[in-house]
Amino acid sequence: MRINSFSVIHSLVFSTGPSLWLGMSIVTVQLGQCGNQIGFEVFDALFRDSHCSQGLCSKRENEAYQASCKERFFREEENGVPVARAVLVDMEPKVINQTLSRAARSGRWTYGQHACFCQRQGSGNNWAYGYSVHGPKHEESIMNLIQKEVEKCDSLSGFFIIMSMAGGTGSGLGAFVTQKLQDQYPSSLKMNQIIWPYGTGEVILQNYNSILTLSHLYRSSDALLIHENDAVHKICARRMNIKQISFRDLNQVLAHQLGSVFQPTYSEDGSFHYRRNPLGDLMEHLVPHPEFKMLSVRNIPQMSENSLAYSTFTWAGLLKHLRQMLISSAKMEEGIDWQVQPPSSGLPPLGKMSAHKDPHFNTSIANLVILRGKDVQSANVEGFKDPALYTSWLEPLHAFSTWKTQRAFGKYEKSAALVSNSQLLVKPLDVIVGKAWNMFASKTQFQKEEQMGVLAWALDVAMSLLAWDNSAACIPAIPLLTTMFITLEYLSSVLFSNMLHMSLSHCSLPMSPHLAVHPSFVLHLLTKYGFLSRHVIFDD
Amino acid sequence: MTQSVVVQVGQCGNQIGCCFWDLALREHAAVNQKGIYDDALSSFFRNVDTRVGGDGSSISKGRISSLKARAVLIDMEEGVVNEILQGPLRDVFDSKQLITDISGSGNNWAVGHKVFGSLYREQILEKLRKSAEQCDCLQCFFVIHSMGGGTGSGLGTFLLKVLEDEFPDVYRFVTAVYPSSEDDVITSPYNSMLAMKELNERADCVLPIDNQSLFDIISKIDLVTSGKLGAAVKPKSLVTTNMGTVTKCPKKPFDAMNNIVANLLLSLTSSARFEGSLNMDLNEISMNLVPFPQLHYLVSSLTPLYTLADVNIPPRRLDQMFSDAFSKNHQLIQADPRHSLYLACALIVRGNVQISDLRRNIERLKPALHFVSWNQEGWKTSLCSVPPVGHSHSLLALANNTCVKPTFMELRERFMRLYRKKAHLHHYLQVDGMEECAFAEAVSSLSALIQEYDELDATKSMPVLDVPRLSVAL
């Protein structure tokens, strides 16, 4: 069982590193236009915060914070300018060039000189190109670059992979790279930062690309940290009062949220001792079960730094809002539905919880609240420990954690971030699967290919996996899951092989399209492909 | 960065091509202040050291020495190409990348396709291969020709077959000028119909244009510029203008119309050449906008047609730009996309426009548009930071919409009127290799296409079919 694997790995790595007082490093992989644009803003936000003069703490404290942040995300070069521990990958050169020059122009930090890989022709918004064509073709070069960056870390916590779901490179190549990272660095952790596209469309194929990305990443990644463009856009519009919102604005809000999660926090040892394994700690607290790994971030206060001068906050107020944002699935600080309340307390018997549950109530598997700033020790987080907020199979003791740090984030005297593993993303996922299914199913009317039903099933499986009602109780049976994953992988292979040929008529499957999870069918797959095999061979 | 090669065929194709290269040079001149040959320039131009004799070897970086267009000029009569080569753009074209003949195709598709096709096949192949070799990474062939004539339509479509065989991985974008109803060429329906069959089968993407629409747009602009607002319009910003152009000679009659098409092609490739916050490459156009291989006809519209001299563009003007893109007066063929069914729509925005403006306008305009049931949010968007010459921002809308159907039906109608009487048919049948069944095949190809659009239109009024999702049997 993998449940305890994170703590095992965590302690293994934790104890076998060399001088670890500075902590472990994270190697960031930026993929595609989205990944590279966001990556820049993240490094910039981290750097600016760590060099922020305020901080509201002692000089020694600040220096420890800076050093810890630096070790995590940057490395030193000869001329003293910090170099981001990042690898930039894109299938066309414009964005990488732009990103590199922006970093160089800032003068504060820079990217490694040879840390990028790009080609000439993009992926054409085709997931299959990213995954099956560019991936294998450039595997060696990309993995070499990553290897070089890893070698420059004293001790590696893991990988932070930034990508979008809607495009071709970020999504397809991102899924491929994550898989290769799992093969090559099995004991390092991988967190994927995924951008969920706008609902009203940025790319016509975004639903297909999203489904394929999620289903693949679900098996190779350790945690998926998801940001929705629509949500971040609303924050910019309503909370930050930006009139003409650009992608840069969106990315900066996002970077701010990520910064408030990833910047150093105190370990249990107390002040001046920052947590050493950022990814390990996050996963240990937030991903207690490998089948539930979709995380979301909320932060408070959500306002631009300029408006801060006119506002004061109390921890009580901030935490109250944050808690309500969690349980009412609100994505921002405004328009929170205060009517939604957790079901009446007291652990109800298994299976009966859904009857009393408010349909808008958001059940969590695990939550992590990160508090930074003045008087942080006085902040009362009892509201988050209510068992009614959580599923029945995990005690709040294990499901909820708080990290408190005196050192403030940026100019925010008090700030709180909530990283949550909950049902928040189920509805958006349902919407995407519905749309992908719609687009796909109606093509069957035109193309009259029955085998397409197989693909539809894959989509539905993806959905079912991710939408299990937590209150329905038991930890899902592992064998069944494995079966579904194998099938899903096989079916996804078929889909992307078709996308590769850009024609839905080249689909040949060795089995009947009318499917249920029939035992013989399962046996057939298990023998043919091997248990959790990654190399799928299909008949022509 | 990828490169594209423009192949201009026939009188129409070459005249449009000429305007295109002129505008491309102006656009790059406005952006490229330092005179360095960069990736953006390399997509359409080669940098050639003319001091070295002969063809001139290509220089990949450094200062611009001499720019040569990545173009192949084909015409079966010499007049137009000669004029280009004697004109101010003569240095831009590589003298070896031409194919000309003397007599012309006589407005006969069969002559263009069969006779000149077989005669010049080897030469065409050689020139194309040469252009391809000069590219690091060739992505796309832009073919420009008219449908109604003989060379453009016949040889132009023959060319498509060559491209498909020799360069199967390279996209084929065709800009095809369809004859208006008052076309002066009597056999244009035959030529267009025969060409349509080839376009159906061999082009990746077709941008149909017709003269009447271009003419209407010109009239509208003339109305504005000669009226009250005339003084306030920035002359350089007219989408039809070739002001600032290299040539000092008086404007040729079709220049204004050709400039519109030139603008279209440049905007199409702008996001691939220049940077922006949401890039769109050429391969994404085909991938996103063509849901079924047959339905690859994209109706285009360019806005704004002119910019007022007012520097501060309030959001209302910006929004007007988006609204105009969907009005039937701005489309480059006679079509009304608003009242037909959208399969997909791409918005390529250039200049100082941000994602919130784009979002706001999509939300605003979407309710009035009909999208096919399985692609309700069928938008593909792109933001390029570099505006076209003379504008601060512009929008190119590409719609895969059933509103192309009337154009095709009318074409079929005009064809049938001639064909029923077998009028002028003998000119075609006289040509070696041309048989009457070719006509029948062409008609059935077009009819099948119209049929597909009909089927889609039928779904328009139907309620959204909620095909039940399969459930997992545990």
Automatic annotation (TrEMBL), chain B:
It is found in: Cytoplasm, Cytoskeleton, Microtubule organizing center, Centrosome. Keywords: Cytoplasm, Cytoskeleton, GTP-binding, Microtubule, Nucleotide-binding, Phosphoprotein. Transmembrane segments: none annotated. Residues 55-276 form the Tubulin/FtsZ GTPase domain. Residues 278-413 form the Tubulin/FtsZ 2-layer sandwich domain. GO terms for biological process: microtubule-based process. GO terms for molecular function: GTP binding. GO terms for cellular component: centrosome; microtubule. SUPFAM superfamilies: Tubulin C-terminal domain-like, Tubulin nucleotide-binding domain-like. It comes from the Eukaryota. Found in a complex with TEDC1, TEDC2, TUBE1 and TUBD1. Belongs to the tubulin family. This is Tubulin epsilon chain. It comes from Myodes glareolus.
